Amino acid sequence: MSGATATLWAAPRLGAAPEDDQRAALPSNAGRSLRLAHITDVHVQPELGAARGLAQCLHHVQSQPDAPQLILNTGDSIMDAIEAGADRTELQWNLWQKLLRDECSLPLEHAIGNHDCWGLNRTKSGTTGREPRWGKQWALEGLGLASPYRSFDRAGWHFIVLDSIEPYQDTYRARLGAEQLDWLKTDLASVPKGVPILVLGHIPIVSPGAVLNGVKETPDHNLELPGALTHLDAKPIHDLLRRQGNVKLCLSGHLHLVDRAEYDGITYISTGAVSASWWKGIRLERFDYGYALVDLFKDGTFHYQFVSYGWRTVASEG
Ligand SMILES: [Fe+2]
User: Fold this and answer.
1) How many angstroms does the Cα of residue 116 sit away from the middle of ligand 1?
2) Backbone angles phi, psi at 231, to 5 degrees
3) Which of 188, 196, 190, 157 lies closest to 70 in space, CA to CA?
4) Is 318 inside a domain boundary?
5) Which of 17, 38, 79, 226 has the most CB atoms lying inside 10 A of its own CB?
6) Phi–psi pair at 126, nearest 5 degrees
7) Ligand 1 centre and the CA of 203: distance in Å?
8) What interhelical angle do 50-62 and 86-103 show, nearest 10?
């Protein structure tokens, strides 16, 4: 493992109340329940040094002087399976699994990203849609998951993993769907009073970065936000989270932007991307190759920091 030193910089704090980062000033970790790392949008592939980049990122996480005990991964683990044939998809999942096996000794919890879903574009991938591993099945196998959405408890917090991806017309859109929304309602109701909740999923439920980078003005002067950028069902999801009363933090990726918003006491954060601009450089000249360290405290507060892990773009590598 490398002994790289963490470079810390704060995420853009769009919409966040100034008192949110009070923990940053605390001299100790008194009351902390768990330190975790949030990685997202790794997009591992044989090219552009991505495998070495992921290894460097994992080493950086594990070499932290105050190392996390858990890694949350919010998807797009492989470069792309939407348009890839079976051979290329297998190669990418094999690479992903080998890197985690060889380079990571921490437990991981995974969500599925759109690029993890095999063959959604049937024409480009050469699939029919009837293959046993078509869609999410190969991603479930690649990530070692029994279900695309689930929940678990750790260190006095309740964690909910959402599946943001709804296959739609040879691509996808961001929606839980009725069945998952019902499950979410039931799961939230099952959490004992006083237990803080963290939600993770690939596509942001709320994202100021999506508004500032993905919105277009329509001919009749409305703003239009594509349903693949943030959740189409953001309002019903947020309403469920708000009514539960103890949902503190929602972590996502997808946009490769670092952003943050707070509404009704719930903080929504996107953690950029381990791959920055898909391993081709810094994203939008300011979002570096990185991950987040998140401290969760017993009283339901948290502290978040984005960490650059020092990767430098390579021109090309097979
Ligand atoms: Fe991505």
Assistant:
1) 9
2) -65, 130
3) 157
4) no
5) 38
6) 75, 25
7) 9
8) 30
CA of 189 to the centre of ligand 1 (A): 31
Domain count across the chain: 1
Q: Report how far residue 45's alpha carbon sits from residue 115's, in angstroms, rounded to the nearest whole number.
A: 12
Distance 155 CA to ligand 1 centre (A): 29
d(CA 154, CA 156): 6
pLDDT value of residue 23? 39
Tell how far the Cα of 222 is from the centroid of ligand 1, in angstroms: 27
CA of 78 to the centre of ligand 1 (A): 9
Domain assignment present for 307: no
Helix, strand or coil for residue 39?
A: strand
Provide the domain limits for residue 286.
7-16+32-299
Q: What is the mean pLDDT of each successive set of 10 residues along the chain, which is 318 residues long? A: 35 36 52 98 98 98 98 98 98 98 98 98 98 98 98 98 97 98 98 98 98 97 97 98 98 98 98 98 98 98 98 78
CATH number of the domain at 54, please.
3.60.21.10
Q: Residue 26 Cα, ligand 1 centroid: separation in angstroms?
A: 34
Report CA(237)–ligand 1 centroid distance (Å).
Answer: 22
Distance in angstroms (rounded) separating the CA atoms of residues 257 and 261? 13
Task: Flag whether 311 is in a domain.
Answer: no
Other CB atoms within 10 Å distance of the CB of residue 166: 19
Residue 1 forms part of a structural domain: no
pLDDT at 29: 80
Determine the distance separating the centroid of ligand 1 and the alpha carbon of 59, expressed in angstroms.
21
CA–chain centroid gap for 234, Å, is 16
